[in-house]
Amino acid sequence: VALFGAGIGTLLFQVITKRSVPIFLASSFAFIAPIMYGIQTWGVASTMGGLMMAGIVYVLMGVVIKVRGVGIIHK
C-alpha cells in the first residue's frame, strides 16, 4: 500500500508541477515510532486525527507560500 500510494502521489505531484521538479515521493519510516507511541498513549482515533491535522497544516502552509511567495519563509 505504501509503495502504491507513493507512486500515485509522485504522479500527481509531477502533473501539478508540470514536471518541473525531479522528485519521488515516498513514505518515511521515521514516522513509525511516533505513530506507535501515539496509538499506545491516545488510541487510534486520536492519532489518526493528529496525522490528519498535520496534513491540513502542511497544505495550508503550501497555500500561504503559493499566494504570498517564498519570501515569507525568509523573513
UniProtKB/TrEMBL annotation:
Membrane topology classification: Multi-pass membrane protein
Compartments, record wording: Membrane
Signal found in the keyword field: no
Domain of life: Bacteria
Keywords: Membrane, Transmembrane, Transmembrane helix
Gene Ontology cellular component terms for the protein in this record: membrane
Transmembrane segments: 21-39, 45-65
GO molecular function, one term: nucleobase transmembrane transporter activity
Protein name: Solute carrier family 23 protein
